[in-house]
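[Protein data]
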Amino acid sequence: MLNLSYEFKLKPTPAQAVVFEDWLEQCRRVYNYGLAERKHWFQSRSCQVNACSIRSEFIISAEAKRPTYASQCKSLTAARASIPALGEVQVHVLQQTLRRLEKAFVSMWEQKHGFPRFKKAGAMRSFVFPQLGVNPVKNGTLKLPKIGLVRFRQSRPIPDGATIKQARIVNRASGWYVMLTLQWDVPVPSVMPHSEALGVDVGLTNFIATSNGLLVKRQKFFLDAERKLKLLQQGVSRKKLGSNNWKKAQKKVAKLHEYIANCRKDWHWKLSHQLCKDAGMIFVEDLNLVGLSRAMLGKHCLDASWGQFFTILEQACFKNGVYFQKVSAHKTSQICPSCGVETGKKGLSERTHSCSNCGYTTDRDVAAAQVVLIRGLAAVGHTVKMLSEGKLVGVPVKKECSHL
């Protein structure tokens, strides 16, 4: 069973665009009301039993149970009967909004995320149709419940035999988009380690350095557009808050941000496919991306977007039949790939690796990529062979077979 996500550009009529915007607003209100209900319940139980703070806490009956997805769905049914605006929205769309709120609390408990926040006007960007009818896509149109046929630009065909499970309508600065989730009942082959291996090290001076000596400079997408972004944001600050000119200026800022993200994503895809051309195995570092984004160079790390690159590289490897695996990033820049001796920390200005034990000298990032390659080959059961030109090659370990 294979799950796919296809994204298409919607071309709704002006009346349909108004309906989309109204549904987003109703979803935002349902989300905020459900969050307020849960927050009040938590606040009523955040103080001592014998010292309740009337000034800062809410008093809720001790018998009241914690609001859950099921209980809030029951309250939603009653609210739809009394509030006409909610009744116009498809019920499953509103239920998915409550499920989204439930996932936010689960992430807070299990993944240590922060407490969910209220969404201001315009902050809700998408809503989901969890169920669609039979064959909802026909002749470049998508049939949505309670909305009808919506035209879209079908840039690629839907695979034969794939079932459309749900549709997410997304509002962006460049227009409306739909993300179709497909379920395709085909066997998914698992890629096995084979052919030539490649270790990849990421950085800020060089975006990537590979174990065979390839160095790719980092593209500064956000920093290059920062001056223009500053001027556009100044234009927003000079407009009257909430006016039509203020909204137009905000849209220009949003379009620039979307352009920067699209350029970065396109470059990541092209680089990923280039790496997959001549490799059968690719190994990368398992970095603490959250910690790096909060460090002194966090702005540059976020501009490089290593997490997105690793995700795209993994997808490109799957498409091209290349084995992909992450390995430990511990001290990759402090170990000599030739002899394995720890050489100590290097300053940021020190760009050359020179081992005092064996005399092996190469670029600092290339040496780190070679260490990543060695760890990756060891993880898949290969030995490492160093050639005369300094190239590392993985040799499979021959296992003895015992005959009964």
Q: What stands out?
A: Confidence is low (pLDDT under 50) at residues 397-404. The longest helix spans residues 244-277.
